Amino acid sequence: MADIQAKSIDLASQEALRKAREESIKTSWDRLEVQKPQCGFGQLGLCCTVCNMGPCRIDPFGEGAQEGVCGANADTIAARNLVRKIAVGASAHSDHGRDVVHTLALFSEGHAHDYDILDLEKFKSLAEELGIDTNKSKEEIAKELAKRFFAEFGKQEGELLFLKRAPKKRQQIWKKLGISPRGIDREIVELLHTTTMGVDNDYKNLINTGLRCALSDGWGGSMIATDLQDIILGSPQPVRGKVNLGVLKENYVNIVVHGHEPILSEMAVKASQDPELLRLARENGAEGINLAGICCTANEVLMRHGIPVAGNFLQQELAIITGAVEVMMVDVQCIMPALQNIASCYHTKLVTTNPKARFPGVLHVEFQPERAYQVAKQIIRLGIENFVNRNKERVNIPKYEMDLVAGFTKEVIFQILGGRYRATYKPLNEAIISGRLRGLAGIVGCNNPKQTHDYFHTTLVKELIKNDILVLQTGCSAIACAKQGLLIPEAAKEYAGKGLQEICEAVGIPPVLHLGSCVDNSRILTAASCIIQEGGLGEDLSDIPAAGAAPEWMSEKAITIGFYFVASGVYTVFGASPFAVLGSKNLTNYLTKDLESFVGGRFEFCDDPLQMATLMIEHIDRKRKALHLRPLMYQ
Ligand code: SF4
Ligand code: MSK
Questions:
Q1: What pTM did the predictor assign?
Q2: 550 Cβ below 6 A of ligand 2
Q3: What distance in angstroms lies between residue 90's CA and the mean position of ligand 1's atoms?
């Protein structure tokens, strides 16, 4: 069983993997073995399929072809491959944002009765930020907001509205470099255009276009999604919850929501408490309905309602393998195509809900915001009716679950640090200035079966908090650390350095703050902007003693996030190498060295979590030194 321990450090996942083996069910880990050895050209970014004169590949040893049929060299090919991923990632987050705007527009027209404005304060302050007259009905304000945000996608000139949230100096840097995004769709289209055969052959120019596109995600599509979700669904507040496969319940109808967009899953939360459905569940022999989540849809319903999280990305198959899931309801992104095969080995019904994300032969119950609650009820009813088909003999729910606290936002950080009536970032800034806190880190991203599941996230985060660095997390990274007990206030005593411990104890927070889903990385950007605004830590985001990392990433979206972090001045370390740029020395140097001189942030590629921590700590110390901050209190 040693090989199972090498697959995941998570005991629940190990147990589910043992069950999978006993039942001859193949998971992503097995499929990875079949893929080995993976294509070396692809791993180095040296394979090009852009046109039909190819596919072409560059010999990394310098003995064979050094250019494709068209003459493109390693630099052009690797840069084009990379920035295409930025466009895809930005499109995913931003299209998510657009769907939320659509729901707001429907609400304003009276067509989305199941939704309301649940954070009136944020709604009004957003309207004021955009110069909208708030002496109108909420429907009228919502209509104007939706109009402004729809326009952000198709805007041809000018700048995205939310760029103004960044510190002045950062805005000037973007302007000077010509990377202030105009319209979201425009940046994505333009980036894709530049990568087609025979357009941009300058790897540096390709990367700059990529930086602009990535910014249109972080300070555009993702930020719109985050803000409007808070307004329509309610802003998160610190909430206790449970995490890991053990949250699935033996005698309950288990409904798992998976994907990214919370607009429907929010209704599933409501429907899971519907008296009519609860009665039906009991009539079908269950004690009740248990809703749980996977990936970022999980993070969304966790943050707003404390709904338990069944697991992160690599646990989506394992949840079904427990034999206890009646329905897995999926929306968009990170949903493995393998799910249908796995579901067909059990009684689980996989249900797709978004017209953009379907599987051949899989039941599709289309979500429409106009009849959101009805759709959610229909899907939960399917689960209840499916409970009788569960084969009790094949049920094995690993008995592992952990407590966590989630629901930290830019606004919540204001309040917990300063109090409701004197909300401020001052205590946070002062803690960094005085050396009680060394700095901040944003740790995000996925899992990847090429790495031991959860090991990189948790090892890195433990090392950072031990060194008095407050960690902000999102996505599957937050779920990984939550499973290891790092997202509870008590973790400070066990894992954090003395300075961080003192802060956590004073305000009652965990040393690792869960800020939400992947689009909520935008919360990290706005929180960092608040830190600059508060004063004492420089004038630009790149001045803050802070660093970012995506230790186990797999999605193109992670690359986009990395790029908008770097374009915002953040030193960002990527694990899961080889990063598909290493085939071009010039491009690698540009990303890991040159970028810093003009954009303030740069990339680092590293596959050892302790080494990653060292690199981040060294960077944070350099920033402390540049700001002439006091020596660390306890290190
Ligand atoms: Fe080959 Fe150039 Fe076509 Fe790429 S664009 S496939 S390198 S000919
Ligand atoms: S869900 S993008 S696997 S973090 Fe956001 Fe997790 Fe990565 Fe998907």
A1: 0.98
A2: no
A3: 24
